[in-house]
Amino acid sequence: MMTGEETLRVREPLFIAAGTRGSKRVGGREQAFVSIRERTSVEHVVAAALEASSVGPIYVWGDRERLEARLGWAVKRAEARGIGLHVVEEGNHFVENFVMTILRHLHGMRGISLDPGLLVEPLGARHWGLWRELSQEASIAGLRVNLLTSDLPLIRPEEIDCLVSGKRQDAHLVLGRSVRAAIDTAVARCDEPFQYDRAVKNYYSFLSGDEPFELIVNNFLAGQPFRVPRFIWNLAGHLFNNRTIIEGGRFNLKKIKNNVVFVKSLFSKARQDDSEGIGHVRKNYYQMLKAFSFLVRAYFIIVKNKDANRKFRDLAVLEERIRTLTGMTLTLHISDCAGPALDIDTEYEIEYIERHFEKLRNGDSPRSLA
Q1: Residues 78-126: pLDDT tens digits?
Q2: Contact 34, 167 (CB under 8 A)
Q3: Cα 286 from chain centroid?
Q4: Are 62 and 150 in contact (CB under 8 A)?
Q5: C-alpha span between 45 and 133 (Å, rounded)
Q6: Domain ranges, ordered by start, for the chain
Q7: Which label site among 107, 147, 210, 223 has the fewest CB atoms less than 10 Å from its CB?
């Protein structure tokens, strides 16, 4: 059972993405179901979440039958801790999974009455209509949720607490990042050097003030989803469903068309006049074009920034331009958490983690750095 100290802490919902539809496969296996030290990767993530003092109800979406077969022990442990573990059958894509899970959370934990059909039919106009209604309720509009992917077998409970409790609480969207030094420190504890060229660990150079540093994506996403504009949700769906473009793969003409429509929507008069409920003030075309141009340049720097000739992006300017263009407060949560950045994208990474599991997990207390 929870201790007295734990009950005083604010516990937030945690989503764990273990979907198999369109997911990346490593060695012929979905990442969530890769086995390391006699447990699948998703089990390692769930086990850490159950011990984190910042986590309330836990939702895992994916192949429900397979997840229930693997997570029976975790459901019992969650019941004993009084936080609840819920397995949700996956939908057609990431955005649908995310939205449906939020609606399930509101239905089950907050007593919000929902048409049962909304929880089983594909994401559509009825869901977004309800979404708009819910966003007008003050008690729901500020709902904060957290998301981790399921391919993080090294993540520790204290790292989850660092990410969940240490994030900027008023941000509409929080993107987790780890400093590369945290990865270097973790692998330095192993006798075998880590071969970055055999792993998928893209790192990018930023400036914070006058201090340059390198960041790695750490698979943590959080924020207040009801305060995120609808067109951002649409863009997220386009990007996820056409990831080959982002990863430098084949061109997809439909994806290009969708992005052109998205860009046009940013500069439409209707968008400038529409507050969308998050304090979006009217911007002139010059301000918006300047912000958009900066973000495009930053994107190309990120894509090309994979050699020693680094260009730095100023974090403060990046966040300010996003706010100018979208009216949304987006921030990076920077930490020295190595576990959520050491994910499993290649067979080499799986084998390395298997060989050095204990040493890689034995780290110092993690810190939020920005």
Answers
A1: 999 999 999 999 988 888 899 999 999 998 877 788 888 888 888 888 8
A2: no
A3: 32
A4: yes
A5: 33
A6: 1-151
A7: 210
- Tell me the whole-structure pTM to 2 decimals: 0.84
pLDDT, tens digit, 9 for 90 and up, residues 276-292: 444 444 556 677 777 77
Whose CA is closest to 15, among 111, 87, 79, 80? 87
Q: Does domain 1-151 have CATH number 3.40.50?
A: yes
Going from the C-alpha of 356 to that of each of 159, 216, 349, the distances in angstroms are 19, 21, 11
CA–CA distance, 284 with 71 (Å, rounded to integer): 52
Q: Which residue has the tokens 């090309």?
A: 304
Q: Which of 177, 172, 189, 149 is nearest to 17 (CA)?
A: 149
Handedness of CA 328, 329, 332, 333 (dihedral sign): negative
Residue 61 dihedral angles phi and psi, to the nearest 5°? -105, 145
Rounded Cα distance, 29 and 23, in Å = 10
Tokens, residue 277: 């409920």
- Whole-angstrom distance, CA of residue 179 vs CA of residue 160: 16
CA–CA separation, 278 vs 173, rounded Å?
12
